[in-house]
Amino acid sequence: MPQTESPAKAAVKPAPLRFDRNELAGAFGDIGTDLPLIVGMILAANLDATSVLVLYGAMQILTGFFYRLPMPVQPLKAVAILVITQKASEHLKITGDVVYGGGLAIGAIMLLLTLTGLMKWIGRIVPKTVVRGIQLGLGLQLTTIALSNYVQKDGVTGYCLAGGAFVISLLLYGNRKYPAALFMILLGAIYALIFKLDLTAARNSIGFTLPHVHMPAWADIVTGFLILALPQVPLSIGNSILAARQTSLDLFPERAPSLQKISLTYSMMNLVNPFFGGVPTCHGSGGLAGYYAFGARTGGAVIIYGSIYLLLGFFFSHGFENVIQVFPLSILGVILLFEGVSMMLLVRDTTVSKQDFFIVLIVGVMAAGLPYGYLVALIVGTLIAHGVPRLRTVNW
Description:
Layout: H1 7-12, H2 21-26, H3 31-44, H4 49-67, E1 74-75, H5 77-85, H6 96-115, H7 118-125, H8 128-150, H9 155-172, H10 180-196, H11 199-204, H12 218-251, H13 259-272, E2 281-282, H14 285-293, H15 300-315, H16 320-323, H17 329-345, H18 354-369, H19 373-387
Antiparallel strand pairs: 1-2
Helix pairs in contact: 3-5, 3-17, 4-15, 5-12, 6-12, 6-13, 8-12, 8-17, 8-18, 8-19, 9-10, 9-17, 12-13, 12-14, 12-19, 14-17, 18-19
C-alpha cells in the first residue's frame, strides 16, 4: 500500500501558482482601493512615481511567491488619507521624506511586536467577534467610499458606467469561465480610450527609468512616527494582521498563514520600501476578500497585479499620475463596492448568537464611525467581549 501524506504535512505543502483567466480577473479585485490612494499620495507629497510603482509592484510579486495565496499588498490607509488630505498638522506639510520616515517607523514597531511575541499575545486576547466587527467596519467604510466618492464621479456618464459595471458583476459574479472583473475593466478601458485619453500625454509618459535610493533622516523618522505611525498602527493590528488572518482562515482554512508570518512580512516590507522611495504598505482583509470575490485562488493573481505596476513604473511612469486618471472612477467604485460587501458577508457566522452579533455590530460601528475608530473598537470591543459569558475566541 502506498504511503499517504499526513494531514499536517499536506497543510503546509506549497500550493501551486496559477496564471489563468480567473487569476487575471481576481488580480483587479483590489484596484478600487489601491489605485486612487497611490495616485493621490504621489500628487500630494510629490513622490517619485517610478519608485512608488516599482516598489509597490515588487512587493506584490514577492508576496505572491511567498504566500502562494491571493494575499494582498495595499498602501497603508490611515497614512494615505493623512498624506492626501494633509490634515496631520496645520503647520506641517507631509513631504516624501516624512512618508518614508513614517514607513520605517511603522516597520520597526511591527517588527518589535512580532519578535517580542506581543502580536501573538494580542491575537490570543482579541476574540473572534471583535475581529469580525473590525471586518464589518472596514466593509462599511469601503462601501461608503465607493458610493459617495467614486460612483458619483463624472455625473450622468459615471452613473451609466457604474450601472453597466454593476449589471456585469451581477450577471457574472462567481463565473469561473467568464470572470466579471475582466469585462468591467474592459468597459472602463474602452471608454477611457475613446473619450478621455490624450495620446500625446500617453506618448510622453513612455521611457525607461529606475527607482531612486533614499536614506531616511532621523528627524523624518521621528516626525513620521508621531503623525503617521501612531494613527496607523492600531488600524494595522486590527485589519492588516488580525482580520487578514481571520479572512485567510475563512477562505483558505487549510493554507492560512500564521499571525506571526503575516506580521513579519508586513514589517519587512516597510523596512525595505523607504530606502527605495516606496510608500508604506500592508496586507489587508478587504483586499483578500476582493481578490477572492473576483476569482483569485492562488498567488498568481497577486503576481499578475504586481507585474502591471512594475511595468508601469519602469516604462510608463513619466506623467503616470495624469494618464492613469482617465480611467473612470465610477467603475473602480463598483469594484470597491463588491470588495466591501464581501467583507461584510464574512460576519454572517456570528448571527447565530445574539450576544456575538451584538458585539460585532458595536465594534463595526465604532471602527467605521469614530476618530481612531479601529483603536477604540479593538480595545473597547475586547473589554466588552471578555465581559460577556460564553463568548468563543479563536486560536491564532
